[in-house]
User: Fold these one by one.
Assistant:
Number 1:
Amino acid sequence: MSDYNFAYLDEQTKRMIRRALLKAIAVPGYQVPFASREMPMPYGWGTGGVQVTASTLVPEDVLKVIDQGADDTTNAVSIRRFFEVTAGVETTTEVPVATLIQTRHRVPETPLTEGQIIVYQVPIPEPLRFLEPRETETRKMHSLGEYGLMHVKLYEDIARHGEIATTYAYPARVSSGYVMDPSPIPKFDNPKLDHSPAIQLFGAGREQRIYALPPWTSVQSLDFEDHPFDPSRADGECALCGSKDSYLDEVITDDAGGRMFICSDTDYCARRSEGAA
Amino acid sequence: MNPILEVSGITRRYGDRIGCADISFDLYPGEVMGIVGESGSGKSTLLNCLAGELIPDAGRILFDSRAEGVCDLLDLSEMQRRVLSRIELAFVHQNPRDGLRMGVSAGGNVGERLMGVGQRHYGNIREQALSWLERVEIPADRIDDRPSQFSGGMQQRLQIARNLVTSPRLVFMDEPTGGLDVSVQARLLDLLRGLVREMGLSAIVVTHDLAVVRLLADRILVMKSGQVVESGLTDQVLDDPHHPYTQLLVASVLQA
Ligand SMILES: Nc1ncnc2c1ncn2[C@@H]1O[C@H](COP(=O)(O)OP(=O)(O)OP(=O)(O)O)[C@@H](O)[C@H]1O
Ligand SMILES: [Mg+2]
């Protein structure tokens, strides 16, 4: 046992965050303000996600932490370790075993199931920020459903690049009417948010905002009739497991510029390789 | 014919100071009303009250809207008000920076209102933007440039295109030719006059330039110290001013 309260945060803070989470689930896609606490890690390292995880975690949980799809990157390892020490929960790399998954930049390839919770780390929760820096104004735009500006951004993309060039943090409209930033996941992952059986929670630490999607919520990526949303990824297959459907990372293999593509989702890739073996 | 706008008793104070007091007038469809007066006479205060940018302390503003019929703009919820502002009303600012998105291309600026009312076909939006750029004499090949790369006159013409693209019923303009060179002003005025006629727009134009009123406005209100001191048909008021203040205004222009 450690000297920390379970999962580091004191119970009062957790209650405050849980209230924000309940409100967020009740109004899907709406950004609920919360009083973000100092965490023993710098902003930009997932303090929002960590606080949401800490407030949601129970001793029976099995936790998985991923960063860019991998369980073994520094950020993922240190957050996992943080909860092993402060909460003493069991951890895993396997999606089907996990009950709570904290993630940065990816949604697992393995479909989530009912009863699971996924927590996204969010740097900038406001999808309108790029076009309208005034918070008073963006809040009004959300409450009035004035999202023409979001399409202006997509229009600018097509005008400049011939296609919608937004590939990460691709904005989506939730069934409630709110437009949300799905966090900096690749647009390839956007369809996984739609009608997911899992509870999806989004935590932005520096910006002090929480938003959420209850299970089975409709999440539609914004687009134009003549430029429909296209989640496709570059052609290629994983050099390790041979997957043609997963999101791939490009890896430089030698100084001569040799490179290969491998699954960004390490758990998916490993279990496919094992299954094939 | 019913008025498109019936303004009665509009009053707005700034603390003890009077911005405008007890202003009433009717505006008919297709009519352009000029508001003139010296600096500080309350022109912008009145215009901003009418356009919903300022809340008056007293008064009524009945607007004959396409969607809702006659309604008091001051009784609408903010939601209704903003919807109306996107579709039936438009506001051309003196400084194009206040009315344009400087970080968005010319095409995006013109297209915004279309997307705001739910248009979702890129090709159609772009076509309408192109046709509007042509109408305001901005070369088609500038459609993807940002307004920051435009001259002051072009910026102002872009702001006009951006506002008129959804065919509003009523346009508010505050010194639309304000910070421009005289030759550029003349061209812009010509353009505005053409558009107002073609589209049958109703408009309220604030200016302290009597030449602008003469060219654009069917009727004028002359304001002084927050009050209307004289009103009527533009030519009548300017050719035969009754109030000493209007006489002074007209005389000072003639001398200049
Ligand atoms: N925000 C404000 N706070 C206090 N007083 C104001 C404010 N805005 C305007 N006023 C005052 O209200 C009066 C009317 O001002 P307004 O800006 O409406 O005049 P205007 O006719 O538009 O002048 P200009 O031709 O210089 O633009 C002036 O006495 C002005 O000083
Ligand atoms: Mg003024």
Number 2:
Amino acid sequence: MPNLEEFRQQTRAWLEESCPASMRNPINSDKDQCWGGRNWVFESDEQRLWLECMAERGWTAPQWPKEYGGGGLSREEAKILKQEMARITARRPLESFGIDMLGPALLKFASEEQKQRYIPEIIRGEIRWCQGYSEPNAGSDLASLQMRAEDKGDHYLVNGSKVWTSYADKSDWIFCLVRTDFDAPKHKGISFLLFDMTSPGVSTNPIKLISGKSPFCETVCENVKVPKENLVGELNKGWDIAKYLLTHEREMIGGFGLSRAGTKTLGQMAVSAIGVADGRLAERGIRTDIADFEIDEMAFALTIERVVDEAKAGQGTGAASSLLKLYGTELNKDRNELLMSIGGSEALAWESEGGETQAQHWLRSKGNSIEGGTSEIQLNIIAKRILGMPG
Amino acid sequence: MALVLNEEQQMLRDSAKSFIQESSPVGALRKLRDSGEEWSPELWSGMAEMGWTGIAIPEDFGGLEFGYVGAGIVLEECGRTLAASPLLSSSFVCASLLEAVGNEAQKESLLAAIAGGETVFTLALCEGDRFDPTRIATTAAADGDTYVLNGSKKHVLDGDLANTFIVVARLTGDADSEDGLGLFLVDRDTEGLSVSTTLNADNRRVGNLDFESVRVAANAVIGKPGANGAALARALDIGAALSAAELLGVAQESFERTLDYLKDRKQFGVPVASFQALQHRAAQLFCELELCKSCVLKALQAIDQDSPDRSTLVSMAKAKVAKTSKLAVNEAVQMHAGIGMTDEFDIGFFMKRSAAACQEYGDYYFHSDRFAELGGY
Ligand SMILES: Cc1cc2nc3c(=O)[nH]c(=O)nc-3n(C[C@H](O)[C@H](O)[C@H](O)COP(=O)(O)OP(=O)(O)OC[C@H]3O[C@@H](n4cnc5c(N)ncnc54)[C@H](O)[C@@H]3O)c2cc1C
């Protein structure tokens, strides 16, 4: 095993030197998170610089193979990188569905040419991807999707609509589930297609959320021509890719359950907002709920650690992604409910100078247990796949 | 440190599992209860032969020096079959105190006897009905180089078996002060000490002790009277973390038995496990138990490594496991329904043991309160 302590020292020194000061500040608004892509306007030179120097080492995707521009790190090294970034409260240099969802699926299912083409630009944050899975009549029952792609010899002709497509209006490309066999059983006629959002016939309409923001869209395809080389994996075998990608999406969303390094704990926030009486938080009911939450949060973080360590030691329990998705998203909702309680009437404010309000965060968090498969669907998966319950 | 069992620890778990399933399955508890007994001396000698009585004791004093992660592995397996023994109070909690503050002579003789299972020690700490390690009114008055104890203790674990009590008594300060406590070795048959026992719902006996001018010789004082706070705190953390480990075994086993039953039991022409209302509750409980496993291992590692946030991690673990175990045994009885309510069926034993183990070394409320306090709120 390479010398991990040495790796830690080098990483620490490099991060100290390379991570710009402003990239160590807490995230306050959407613009603080860099999503990259053709149309991204960097918030600051430092944001650009941080992305560039991390991407150059492949550290936007630390464990991906070096041959495609990834970091080539082992699990142990990636864990150290994460710890060292947390130590200086460094922001993630790139938020990306390409990294969290599409990339792992491409690495497993795509052809060599496709990997060479798409992966390096994901790592460098040059292309922003969105996810075309859900449709108006295919939510939890995703496999019933109806968007069709017809074989026209040298291309597929795509027609239909997707809905709840996060950031479709800001994305450069989409990875999309389409029906390519109209007679086969529903899981067996689905294919996995990639296409450019600027292709003629693609349009997006933003949908406003209860939080007042419009991060997601309706995406309509009318006679969109997609080159045949953009099919990933085999025709009609897209469902396996779709499911594999979902496990990665779930792990990403589950990570919302963790509080960001360097931020105050709920207990500390409550002490400043509510005050102390007899050496304890003055509002005793909230105190108990905060303790419950913080215990679960700590236990959850430890469970993520344990799952990773067990996988490393070859003792994996498997199917952990549903557990992490379920628990992490419910925790994030609890956290936001508590923040609303701690803030009291003050937390209801709807307008603020720059950044999002607590009320907006709170409302947005409700989507966590819906996106990527609802909590009920995760419970179904755990009951059936892990616990072996029938029906 | 990786949050997994290493190879040695996995081997320990396998051997602990097969020993305990063989020599003390749940049926053994039923037999004991039906014949009016609470524990089995044969099981205890078997445990001593396995080295469990010395698992956390340094090799120099006749132990295996396997650490508290090892002790937790053993207790978790005992939790699965509800096997009763004084491992926790004698071999783990009292031994840790003697190791930390005992003098060389005490360590030589007493630790070796504990490691060999030849004698049983227990801690006589609490005086009320809730775990409260500073509410100590029992007094120790110096008289030359001896001490005289007066007061009483309640709910002393393994109070029926212990040959010797480590008594926590107050030298100075008021009843709630953390300082001014001394540790005294008092043999069961010492003049002035009267011991009665109470049988609890889980078929274990706890002791009620009364001290009337009990004289303690100089060589029966452990550590420096008034200055044992850190060692006592650590011993109680060991108790809480290990009781969480045992409770995890109780909860996990009752969950697995319930899951098997749901797959077996048919109503409306199908296994009841096919009903989504039950599937979701089972899946939720599965997740909680997964979190508990992580908490318990982390807390025990924190003790072995002398981590600065040991107490926070221990309170996290005990609070989380106590809450989850309560859910697990309640779901178990509800999902077994009629048969779950019968004495003839074993699942009720899990509910009774869970309730008792939840109280040992601090219940959910004690530990969630301490967790908040340590978190500064
Ligand atoms: C913020 C946000 C972002 C999103 N981003 C994207 C995106 O980028 N790309 C994309 O493709 N999709 C996206 N989605 C869509 C998301 O994946 C779907 O909303 C989700 O899968 C649920 O589908 P649905 O909304 O149609 O609900 P439905 O499936 O209609 O569910 C309604 C209710 O029924 C329950 N239910 C359904 N089936 C079962 C069952 N078998 N057992 C028990 N209960 C059941 C559900 O849990 C839910 O409570 C996003 C959603 C949100 C909220």
